[in-house]
Design a protein that fits this description.
This protein is mainly alpha-helical and 123 residues long. It has two domains: 81 residues; 26 residues. It contains four helices and two strands; from the N terminus they run ααββαα. It has a two-stranded antiparallel ribbon. The termini are far apart.
Length: 123
C-alpha cells in the first residue's frame, strides 16, 4: 500500500500504524487515507492556533469571542475520531473489530463486572 503524498509526520505514523499491520478493504483504505489527510489538516490548524497571540478575538459587535480556528480544530478532531472509529480496528486485547455501540456496551459490561467483583471480594 502506497503512502499517500502530502501527509504530515503524525499522519504518516497513523498510516503506518494501520496500513502495515492490518489487511484493509479498498473502502477502509479510502477511509484511512481520508483520516490521514484530516490529521494533516488538523496538524496545520493546531500549529496556526499555537501561533496566535491570543485565543479571544473581537466579534462584530465588539464582544469578545473565541478565535474561529478553535472551532475548526474541534471539528477536525471530531471528524478524525469518527473516521478512525469507522475503521473498526480491534483493541489491543480484542480479536475482532466492534462497531461503536458494541464498544460502548463492552466497556459498560467490564465496568459492571469489576464493580460486582470488588463488592464480592470485600464482603
Amino acid at each position: 500500500m502506497k503512502l499517500p503524498s502530502g501527509l504530515s509526520a503524525s499522519a504518516r505514523r497513523l498510516w503506518n500504524d494501520v496500513a502495515v499491520p492490518y489487511v484493509l478493504t479498498p473502502a477502509e483504505l479510502a477511509m484511512l487515507e481520508e483520516a490521514c489527510h484530516t490529521r494533516t489538516e488538523l496538524d496545520r490548524l493546531e500549529k496556526a492556533v499555537r501561533a496566535l497571540p491570543g485565543l479571544v478575538v473581537t466579534g462584530s459587535m465588539g464582544q469578545p469571542r473565541m478565535h474561529p480556528l478553535l472551532a475548526e480544530v474541534r471539528a477536525h478532531r471530531t471528524l478524525l475520531a469518527k473516521l478512525t472509529g469507522q475503521l473498526n480496528l480491534p483493541d489491543e486485547d480484542q480479536q475482532a473489530g466492534l462497531h461503536a455501540g458494541q464498544k460502548h456496551a463492552r466497556k459498560g459490561a467490564v465496568a459492571r463486572w469489576n464493580r460486582s467483583d470488588r463488592g464480592a471480594a470485600s464482603a
